[in-house]
Design a protein that fits this description.
about 200 residues; alpha+beta; two-stranded antiparallel sheet; about 35% helix
């Protein structure tokens, strides 16, 4: 609708139709067409309220572009045209590839859901469903178009475990139990959202 968060901009003008090259071999695109959900950090850090129309309308675009449901669990791609991941045939990332689903983003979405005062248990479930045999959460899991010999929703050959994802799981677990975002900065939230 003309109101959007832009992922990254080379010159600070979000409406100039400039192009940007994804640094991981993902290709070159109009910078306004790259979709990710990094703007949820604005809620997590207390800068925007969870019910901001800018946030809620942007989530519709994110879900339509990046979300996949595997075995009833919701996962998201880091951004569209992401080239950081194995190739379509399952061969290793070599400077180009296809970005797969990131379980940590299920955790980020869960933390946003806590901020909306809704139940976020499904995001904990999604993160654990993606875990390896040792119960550790990987960087990426295979999407619906997993190559032959690989199963959707299981860890790819990327970082496994990803400590950042494990930390996000703990943060989400604590946030759910306390009914508030565990790592929100109180002084920021008080200043910008009055909370």
């Amino acid at each position: 609708n003309g109101h959007y968060f832009e992922r990254i901009d080379a010159n600070g003008n979000p409406n100039d139709a400039d192009t940007i090259q994804n640094s991981n071999g993902g290709g070159t695109y109009d910078e306004r067409s790259i979709v990710d959900m990094g703007f949820l950090e604005l809620v997590r850090q207390g800068i925007y309220p969870a019910n901001s129309p800018y946030i809620t309308s942007s989530l519709r675009v994110v879900d339509a572009t990046l979300e996949e449901t595997i075995n009833g669990n919701s996962y998201w791609h880091r951004y569209n045209h992401d080239g950081y991941g194995e190739h379509a045939d399952g061969s290793n990332y070599d400077g180009t590839g296809i970005g797969q689903l990131w379980p940590i983003l299920s955790g980020e979405r869960g933390i946003y859901t806590v901020a909306t005062n809704q139940n976020a248990d499904q995001y904990l479930t999604a993160m654990m469903a993606a875990a390896n045999g040792s119960g550790m959460i990987p960087e990426q899991v295979w999407g619906k178009n997993a190559p032959t010999g690989y199963t959707p929703g299981t860890p790819t050959k990327s970082m496994n475990p990803l400590n950042w994802a494990m930390g996000e799981y703990i943060t989400l677990l604590y946030s759910i139990s306390e009914h508030k975002i565990a790592d929100v900065v109180p002084i920021t939230a008080q200043r910008y959202t009055g909370q």
